[in-house]
């Protein structure tokens, strides 16, 4: 019997792993089996738009964000909002399922997961939809300040006037 078990165990293990692989339909950006993770009572995760990879539109829709600086500091008022409402999870290393850190201006310039859009574009989508901050309410003034900054491509503060 032990010999039979040793021969069948690898086959059974392989079959189990193959079955689990096919059952995984998660959006890997969110990291949950069976679909997107959303705590009870949270708004749904806004879908990723299928067009506009640069993060600011283009053509007659307004300026693109392709030429924004890759380095710099947050404007101090924006940093205060991020620190109060975002950095509890979006720290280094991230906590509570946050996908990445947002502690530095440079963090907002990295690409969002496997997409071609920078994180600051995704930040605008999830803040505007009310999905973020997760399980919390951001005061309207703070939300608007953050959205206004993000709508201008999240430009850095002038040299010597930023916060981090």
TrEMBL record:
Domain of life: Bacteria
Biased composition (Gly residues): 52-61
GO function terms (MF aspect): electron transfer activity; heme binding
Entry keyword annotation includes Signal: yes
Annotated keywords: Signal
Signal peptide span: 1-25
Annotated stretches, region: Disordered: 43-66
Name the UniProt record assigns to this protein: Cytochrome c domain-containing protein
Source species of the chain: Polyangium fumosum
Taxon lineage: Bacteria, Pseudomonadati, Myxococcota, Polyangia, Polyangiales
